[in-house]
Design a protein that fits this description.
The chain is α+β, with helices and mostly antiparallel strands. The protein contains 7 helices and 18 strands. The protein is 27% helix and 33% strand. The protein binds the ligand C=C(O[C@@H]1C=C(C(=O)O)C=C[C@H]1O)C(=O)O. GO terms for molecular function: isochorismate synthase activity.
Length: 360
């Protein structure tokens, strides 16, 4: 029998994780984000829906809140324990020079149409595979991520359809309840150096983020009333800084947030502009499958709180390896070396949780 579908997550600025588990049957497969209208559960949706990467909804047969309750539940239901413990020793590590060469080639495919004016922005991403350290415990990694990244949403989810993923994302796609909703335009990245959060943002970073703001403003104007905008301001995410604009808005019918989600996802923070063309271009030219990276994860409840995030700074776990994912927004002025370094910095967010003594 398959292991039950589970999701363990910790919201930003809280210290109380939540465990959701479906005890009977398989999670529901969704054919679009719109199908979330009126539905409750933990969502795992890919960047692009395919038959091998469906969107799924974990039905909350069991909900445990806080470590005490979670430990109690795991004692009664050991089958819900996140199961990956490393078997070590497989040689799975991707070679960095090979990865960099593939990235530079993809960069070349992306930058040409950007410079020809076919796109205003394109997000280029990549993956890298690392062996899991001997005795790796995913639960320990989750706890380390919770401690290390108090401002991020930490998640660890596993279903027979989607596999096991862990991540620390800084990006809300949609949160709220009743009529009050919140989303963000998050883009532009620099490393945090000696804790200094007061940085001057380059023209490229400001432009990149402004394009996301413009897009989200337009989507909200179609769905919401009374939108309030705050930003852009500098927001810390682990050892990185981003530019962020908050949108607070009202919607009349929270039953239909699936429609809004379908319109928002994927935003130009992970895709590009114009949206559909960028989406098709990325699918055809990025050179790998993003799978659940840059998709949507989180809790949705038409009668309570909804907290949905973009699945970033994440990895897929197998018994031997972790596949890490990261990307960044390209504009016509982008430089390949800087963009490659940005993917290294972003990957380090989740890579640092693999071992007990990460790089400081
Ligand atoms: C694409 C990622 O992050 C997104 C892209 C950013 C950028 O291009 O600067 C910044 C934050 C996120 O919206 C990622 O983490 O992989």
């Amino acid at each position: 029998m398959n292991k039950p579908a589970t999701a363990l997550y910790r919201l930003p600025y809280t210290d109380s994780p939540i465990l959701i588990a479906q005890l009977q049957g398989e999670p529901q497969i969704l054919t679009s984000l719109q199908e979330l209208n009126g539905r409750k559960g933990f969502v795992i949706a890919p960047f692009r829906l395919t038959s091998s990467t469906p969107a799924v909804l974990i039905r909350p047969d069991l909900i445990a809140k806080g470590w005490d309750q979670i430990h109690e539940v795991l004692q009664c239901h050991p089958e819900l324990k996140p199961g990956i413990i490393s078997c070590g020793n497989e040689s799975v590590e991707s070679s960095e020079p090979i990865l960099k060469k593939a990235y530079e080639e993809a960069f070349g495919r992306f930058i040409t149409p950007l410079r020809q004016g076919q796109f205003r922005k394109l997000v280029l991403s990549r993956s890298a595979t690392y062996p899991l350290p001997r005795d790796f415990s995913v639960m320990d990694a989750f706890i380390r991520a919770c401690k290390e990244y108090p401002r991020m949403m930490i998640s660890l989810h596993s279903t027979p359809f989607t596999g096991t993923w862990m991540g620390s994302t800084p990006e809300i796609i949609l949160s709220g309840n009743g009529r009050q909703w919140h989303t963000v335009a998050l883009a532009g990245t620099v490393p945090l150096i000696e804790g200094e959060e007061n940085v001057t943002w380059s023209e490229k970073n400001r432009k990149e983020q402004a394009l996301v703001t413009e897009y989200i403003r337009e989507v909200i104007s179609r769905f919401g009333t009374q939108s309030e905008e705050q930003g852009p301001y500098t927001a810390r995410a682990g050892r990185l800084l981003h530019l962020k604009t908050d949108f607070k808005f009202q919607i009349d019918n929270p039953e239909n947030i699936g429609n809004l989600l379908e319109a928002l996802h994927p935003t130009p923070a992970v895709c590009g502009l114009p949206k559909q063309e960028a989406y098709d271009f990325i699918t055809a030219n990025e050179g790998y499958d993003r799978s659940y990276y840059a998709g949507v994860i989180g809790w949705t409840d038409p009668d309570g709180d909804t907290n949905l995030f973009v699945n970033l700074r994440c990895m897929q776990l197998t018994p031997h390896s972790a596949v890490l994912y990261a990307g960044g927004g390209l504009l016509p002025s982008s430089d390949p070396e800087l963009e490659w370094n940005e993917t290294l910095h972003k990957m380090a967010t989740i890579k640092n949780t693999l071992t007990p003594n990460p790089r400081k």
